[in-house]
Amino acid sequence: MKKSILLMLILTGFSCQQNTEEMTYPVTQKIPVSETYFDTEVTDNYRWLEDDMSKETEAWVGKQNETTFSFLDQIPFRSELKNRLEQIWNYEKLSAPFKEGDYTYFYKNDGLQNQYVVYRQKEGEGEEKEVFLDPNTFAEDGTTSLAGLTFSKSGKLAAYSISEGGSDWRKIIVLDAVHKTILEDTLLEVKFSGIQWMLDEGFFYSSYDKPDGSELSEMTDQHKLYYHKLGTSQSEDQLIYGGTPEQKHRYVGASVTEDGRYLIISGSKTTSGNIAFLKDLADPNSPLIPMDEDYNTDSYLLDAEGDQFFIVTNKNAPNQKVVSVSANRPQEKYWKDFIPETEHVLSPSSGSGYFFAKYMVDAITKVFQYDSKGNNMGEVELPGVGTAGGFSGKKEVDLLYFSFSNYHSPGIIYSYEPKTKTAKKYWTPDIDFNPEDYISTQVFYTSTDGTKVPMIITHKKGVEYNGKNPTILYGYGGFNISLRPSFSISNAVWMEQGGVYAVPNLRGGGEYGKEWHQAGIQQKKQNVFDDFIAAAEYLIAENITSPEFLAIRGGSNGGLLVGATMTQRPDLIKVALPAVGVLDMLRYHKFTAGAGWSYDFGTSEDSAEMFAYLKGYSPVHNVKGGTHYPATLITTGDHDDRVVPAHSFKFAAELQDKQQGENPVLIRIETNAGHGAGTPVAKTIEQYADIFGFTLYNMGFKVLPEAISSKPKG
């Protein structure tokens, strides 16, 4: 159908209204497209919403936002939430310092700045500091963010990447770091890439060929590694790996040893598993030497000392270990255990010539220090129960840093002297929030199949378990990603209102290693949803909350989790908050780099069994007419080129068409925004005011909970 005719149909549809008891929605035109999967025909009524470049989709976005914000504007305490978010957000935030050349650098935000500013201090000049990079000057509205910054070996050169409008496509700018001047033309069309310097001569980066059609949604399937030599144009950049069918990978990355001698290349077809090659950079004609040729396991470079490499791997070690190997014989068969596998998942780092084995023990951090010979020097004492990050740096530095936080304690930065194993407070946030007023409790509940799953529940001390506490149950459950205790300013505001915040460590994540991950993938994905549903049932059974006061929330793969849970158990929850979710499981692999997620999901093309399994839980395909779904606020960004917004668009259209009852189904589409990273603070505050406002309002609150002496009527 021609676009002009389609636009007329859609705009005509907008002039009509479709009703629930209290809500009216713009009608989304149905233009059926049918496909056959293994003798099963599937009709997609909203395929046209996948075209992010069309005027029809643009018009739909405008009408949906108009409807959504008309609803949000009526929430009486929305501005009060926004004001409180601004108040609590407005405190100075710092990163740990790091040394490059003659300068010490750090990131800092004065409070409400949209982006962190990079500062530096020169050795021997006391407390005097200067701005090195201010991303707040990149765009007036703060939507261009600093996506990465790396320095050359000498520290005299730097390269940084920027993201515009939240897109995964980046630009790279090269600086004379000493004088803060741009050296050459900007590199364009870079995606899913680090920046790895080869001394002061140039750097390696990765990207895809620019797709035909939309950069935001067209498939990007062959990742390539390039070398950019300073002083030359990007068109002259040398293709290092990925330019042939034999080298086809969806993700290609690189690491350069600290001395600049060796390059290690990683190639992955999906988000799990990689092969690796070694190249001697001292010899331009040196071959690529295979190190690891097993796509079923993950391995990456941790550190190197001359010709000795230290590699993190889950080869024959689902909880990960560190091995050592010589550059002369780098193949997997020569690997020797350096830090052996234990019963807990390992996430190591290195700095000052030492190694730090960070373990997850039921999602809580424990750290052990090792010397350069692999001797265990004992446990590092942490300030409490929570998450510690850091313990990394160059070999020549004497002082390292680590951060520590949990769900109710803002992150504190500590300095750490490895030689004496001495930690001192380096920076404490001056925030209008008292962590002593809150408590986190870890429980273990039983999932559908008898599996024990941990969950941390956080709220104000003294909260009465009376079944009426507004509760957000947050989850992810995928891609070997672990949810560890960490502080969130927005969640602090939620808990100030008497809200409960609960986070279960679902299967599909990495909290208990590769086996835990694999227990929640492909045709075991239902385990993840069952774990989440069981967490909700636990909160209700313990009278912490009830279905009238329970909200579920998650983003990306967590958005899928919310979508699947609300379509399978709409009776269990009052509010659903799927963010940037993967919601069309039959077509997710058709967009951008989505095919790389097949390790976790499988695809509808794999087999009749896999197709049927995906269709059985795909949120877009399981919205049923005549059903009372929870009050739903779907959130996405129009520039999300990781999980394209068409997922959210189609899910919203299905829900609005079939919803019964008074619960609203709305979609909030942030313009000039992507998957989430780099979102300006101002926009983030507005989003949370809307999300929390929508949640509490639909739980029956007419004023903020802490502002009244009694609970609202259900």
Question: What do you see in this structure?
Answer:
There is one protein chain. The chain is an alpha+beta fold and 714 residues long. It is 18% helix and 34% strand. It contains eleven helices and 42 strands. It has an eight-stranded mixed β-sheet, with helices on both faces. A hairpin with a 2-residue loop joins β23 (299-305) and β24. The longest helix is centred in the first third of the chain and has 18 residues, at 55-72. The protein is globular, with a radius of gyration of 26 Å. The chain starts with a helix and ends in a 16-residue tail after the last helix. Mean pLDDT is 91; it is low at 1-21 and 708-714.
Q: Compute the separation of the termini in Å.
A: 48 Å
Identify low-pLDDT runs: 1-21, 708-714
Structural class: alpha+beta
Q: What is the number of helices?
A: 11
The whole-angstrom Rg is 26 Å
| Percent strand | 25-35%
- Which geometry do the CA atoms define? globular
What percentage of residues falls in helices of 4 or more residues? Answer: 10-25%
Task: Provide the residue-averaged pLDDT.
Answer: 91
Strand order of the largest sheet: 35-36-38-37-39-40-41-42
- Largest sheet entry: 8 strands, mixed
Quick one: how many beta strands? 42
Describe the structure concisely.
By secondary structure, the chain is α+β, with helices and mostly antiparallel strands.
Topology, pairings included?
Elements: H1 3-14, E1 17-19, E2 24-26, E3 33-37, E4 40-44, H2 55-72, H3 78-89, E5 93-94, E6 98-100, E7 103-109, E8 117-122, E9 130-133, E10 144-151, E11 157-164, E12 169-176, E13 181-182, E14 187-191, E15 196-198, E16 202-208, E17 223-229, E18 238-241, E19 251-256, E20 262-268, E21 275-280, E22 289-292, E23 299-305, E24 308-313, E25 321-326, E26 336-339, E27 345-351, E28 354-361, E29 364-370, E30 376-380, E31 387-390, E32 400-406, E33 409-417, E34 422-427, E35 438-446, E36 452-460, E37 471-474, H4 489-496, E38 500-504, H5 514-518, H6 526-541, E39 550-555, H7 557-568, E40 575-579, H8 598-601, H9 608-617, E41 631-637, H10 646-658, E42 665-670, H11 681-698
Parallel strand pairs: 37-38, 37-39, 39-40, 40-41, 41-42
Antiparallel strand pairs: 1-2, 3-4, 5-7, 6-7, 7-8, 8-9, 10-11, 11-12, 12-13, 12-14, 15-16, 16-17, 17-18, 19-20, 20-21, 21-22, 23-24, 24-25, 25-26, 27-28, 28-29, 29-30, 31-32, 32-33, 33-34, 35-36, 36-38
